[in-house]
Specification:
Elements lengths: L5 H9 L12 H7 L6 H11 L3 H11 L6 H22 L10 H11 L18 E3 L6 H7 L6 E4 L4 E5 L2 E6 L7 H11 L9 H10 L12 H14 L1
Helix pairs in contact: 4-8, 5-6, 9-10
């Protein structure tokens, strides 16, 4: 419970909930223990401690297609197909040059292929930095997160592993071999925590929402940037 504040720990102990019982807490349990808008950040912190890796994908399924037991596997299949096609799309759009179609190059190209009209914060640099950042050997991830101008979910890539962080809080780690699935987990955290897409990558995340997650967007929320990007993508794959 080292990531929780004193009030959260005291409340859990008063309810006889130890660290061993945390994984059994549902979203409703957490709301009952910490009601009200003043406890929003505490609920979020506890949810992040409780839910990691596949559990956050389970939450994504619960939100989008609760009755489809195959949703996660189908989503991963859609992502693999999308990921494969986007390499050719990137070369065609001159966002990538062969053979630079490895994971990092694809992730950087995604924002160029599905651009937003809003520029990223100057301190962020490239829009792709809102999605992932490759740590240098001299970079401390804690220092990097504290100085990062955005608090949205991000994948940090090091020589040893990948880490997903939200704000300045690391929430899970996974093997670098699964780096290409990192965006799926980022999207799951956006849904599970009801986070708003940063404007500088909103078009890309909206494309992932409709094409990979298969969650529709209300007509009034369809931006010109999304309509243009998805139209060009549909023309390419069809």
């Amino acid at each position: 419970m080292d990531k929780l504040d004193d009030v959260s720990i005291a409340t859990l102990r008063a309810a006889n909930i130890g660290e061993d019982l945390l994984p059994s807490l549902s979203r409703d349990d957490i709301k009952d223990l910490f009601p009200g808008p003043e406890n929003f950040l505490r609920r979020r912190a506890i949810w992040l401690v409780v839910n990691k890796d596949e559990k956050v994908l389970d939450e994504l399924q619960r939100v989008i297609q609760p009755t489809n037991s195959q949703y996660i596997s189908e989503m991963k299949s859609r992502w693999e197909a999308f990921y494969s096609k986007v390499r050719f799309y990137g070369v065609m759009k001159k966002a990538m040059k062969p053979p630079k179609t490895l994971n990092g190059a694809v992730f950087r190209a995604l924002q160029l292929l599905f651009p937003s009209s809003t520029m990223p914060p100057k301190k962020l640099g490239l829009s792709s930095e809102a999605l992932f950042h490759v740590l240098t050997t001299s970079e401390d991830p804690d220092v990097f997160l504290r100085q990062r101008p955005l608090s949205c979910p991000v994948v940090l890539v090091s020589e040893d592993n990948c880490m997903i962080a939200i704000g300045n809080m690391p929430v899970t780690t996974f093997n670098t071999e699964r780096f290409n699935e990192g965006l799926l987990y980022l999207m799951a955290y956006y849904y599970a925590l009801h986070l708003t897409y940063p404007k500088c990558i909103s078009t890309l995340l909206s494309v992932l929402q409709t094409e990979i997650l298969q969650d529709s967007i209300h007509e009034q929320d369809l931006t010109p940037s999304y309509k243009k990007a998805i139209g060009e993508w549909k023309s390419f794959i069809e």
